[in-house]
Design brief:
The chain is an alpha+beta fold. Helices cover about 25% and strands about 35% of the residues.
């Protein structure tokens, strides 16, 4: 409760700005208020995507979710594995830029989105196995290839994530650093006094 109250108190003045794109000094005003609460990251959603702060450093980055509709197969899995056969995904692609000490504006978000669309266009509606450098198009390899191509296009990625499904994905952060994401659901029983309840837990 203290955390929620503290964040709401210091963020409310910024959220009430007429502009959806506060500049760095506004983010800096949050630093001293939010950092003692243990908050390491704040996000602000917009129609074009979102921008995010690291309050301790008073720096800001851009981010957004994009879709990629393609086919692939995984040639290195066992013969009887379902992913050995050609199949398709509507991938969800997360792109976040490196943090910068500069103002965020509508034009910077629009430029970011145009750049990412240009990055993803060669991968749309194709067989990913035929893309150069992607003969084994796992989520990990696709994320890494997108990351390196994004650098070549001056997008300056902090991380690029690839989700094949709503519960399974992988993000690449450069220098061989990957993060895997997997959701699991547990069906549990909870006893309170003489009563039992069913609960679904997501991990």
């Amino acid at each position: 409760d203290d955390l929620v109250t503290g964040v709401q108190t210091c963020a409310l003045p910024i959220c009430q700005f007429e502009s959806s794109y506060p500049e760095i000094p506004d983010a800096q005003t949050l630093r001293d208020e939010v950092a003692p609460l243990g908050v390491t990251r704040l996000e602000r959603q917009t129609n074009e995507g979102y921008w995010w702060w690291e309050p301790q450093r008073s720096m800001v980055g851009l981010g957004g979710w994009f879709s990629l509709s393609s086919a692939h197969f995984l040639p290195n899995v066992p013969e009887d594995h379902k992913c050995r056969r050609m199949h398709g995904h509507r991938f969800r692609i997360l792109v976040e830029t490196e943090l910068v000490d500069e103002p965020v504006s509508p034009s910077s978000l629009a430029r970011f989105h145009n750049q990412v669309r240009g990055l993803l266009n060669p991968f749309q509606r194709c067989l990913l196995n035929e893309v150069e450098g992607l003969s084994n198009p796992t989520a990990e390899n696709l994320a890494a290839l997108l990351f390196h191509r994004a650098r070549d296009m001056d997008i300056h990625p902090e991380a690029i994530g690839v989700w094949e499904t709503s519960y399974s994905g992988c993000a690449y952060r450069g220098d061989g650093q990957y993060q895997a994401y997997k959701d699991f659901e547990l069906e549990c029983a909870l006893q309170r006094d003489c009563d039992y309840e069913g609960r679904s837990l997501k991990l």
